[in-house]
Amino acid sequence: MKKRVFAGIPMVMMMGLTSACGSGSTTVQPAAEDAAPKQEARQEPVTLKLYTYQNFTNDEMFNDYIVEPLKKKYPYITVQLIRSQSGGMTVPGMLAAGDTPDLINGWQAEIKTLENYRLVGDMAPLAKQNNLDLNRFEPVAIDAVKALSEKGELYGIPYNQQFNALYYNKDIFDKFGVAYPKDGMTWDDAIELGKKVSRIENGIQYRGLAYEHISRLSSSLSPNVVDPKNQKANVNNDSWRKVFQLGKDILSIPNNMPPKVDAGDTDAFWKNKTVAMYATINMLESTKDAMDKGLNLGVAQYPSYKELPNTYGYLDAHFIVVTPQSKNKDAAMKVVEVMTSDEVQLKVARKYGKFSPLKNPEIKKQLGADMAHLKGIDLQSIFKSKPAAGMDFSKYYVESRKKLMAEYVNFAGGAVDLNTALRNAEEAINKYIATEQANEK
């Protein structure tokens, strides 16, 4: 069979990462290197290429993260943004044209897949050479990057971190005279509460509890889909058995079954306002339209598995990579420096609700402080949970996850029993991987 040079890279669709509020009265004291930026001696202009997956789709955000801070501190550096989405350039296309980017950003599965293109390497020496202090970052965020390599190499630097929350519609709880969700609930608690607000009234189905999709529901346990060491399916086990059963238990609440199993409940909660509680990722930036149209929003702590209290999904973050092929690595590291500076992290936290991977507690306190639509919403429950450890990802992860999700739909819809669903998923994933491996030879 014809040998393929590169394995295909997944175009993982990302939810917009947003966050929440806090008093705007507190100020952050910049780190010493940020307090009074000194421009370097005159430098020759340099233009860097940044390839982005689904990040920086907003020009204003790109401007706030990179363009403006570079103008202030390193005006000789210009960054050209190359987008992958909407028919944009692909990584194989760039490589075929001999046009390797200096910087790439994405989330774990995307960065892991870049190994196939030899576009990642250990950035720890670069960080040291350029005085980027990794001790400023939350250890779990740095560890999540290191988990992506066999030798614990630092393939990228985190600049934005995910969180999970339980969003709820206060009007539905008020309508049925039920108390709002409390922080510290287990999934069993959330199911019992969901039963109280799952009803059909005046021909409208009000669903008590939705969980976005089964993969999100699983993430607190950090169960992998493919074992990255032996490249075999890792789904026919107790962890996935627990996740599948939990998902079905939620859907089995009377009057809680959605029109389509595991199709996501974004519109049902935000637009239709027929879901009482929605457990998902950071979506606070994208809530503005729904709140302008009358959604009476509340936010509570994400439900936990009883054996893992106060724990939400595995560390899910965006990372910035300096490619080994870049001829301007030091300049590229200066882009990383400004993106992860206290000043920039504070601005994007306040303006966009971005959840910083830095330890700085003042940045966390001001999450969403400049987002007017979040005023008056108590978001402190977000900080009562911590992320589970990050995972390694096989290059076959994305397609394998799709096959697992398909079997969950069969199980939750009643077509097969639990053991059969997991066995079928295991067989389908292993068959897919074997075919891919054969084509790569």
Can you offer a commentary on this structure?
The protein is an alpha/beta fold. Helix content is 35%, strand content 15%. It contains 17 helices and 14 strands. The chain has helices at 32-35, 59-73, 91-96, 108-113, 124-129, 139-146, 170-175, 187-196, 214-218, 238-251, 266-270, 288-292, 329-339, 342-352, 361-365, 397-412, 418-440, and strands spanning 46-52, 77-83, 103-107, 157-161, 164-169, 199-201, 204-210, 226-227, 232-233, 275-281, 297-300, 311-314, 317-322, 386-388. A 5-stranded mixed β-sheet has the order 2-1-3-13-4, sandwiched between helices. Strands 6-7-10-5-11 form a 5-stranded mixed β-sheet. Helix 16 (397-412) runs antiparallel to helix 17 (418-440).
Approximate strand percentage: 15-25%
Strand tally, please?
Answer: 14
Question: End-to-end distance, in Å?
Answer: 7 Å
Instruction: For the largest sheet, list the strands in their spatial order.
Output: 2-1-3-13-4
* Low-pLDDT segments, ≥5 res: 1-38
Q: Which structural category do the helix and sheet elements fall into?
A: alpha/beta
Shape: globular
Describe the sheet with the most strands: 5 strands, mixed
Number of helices: 17
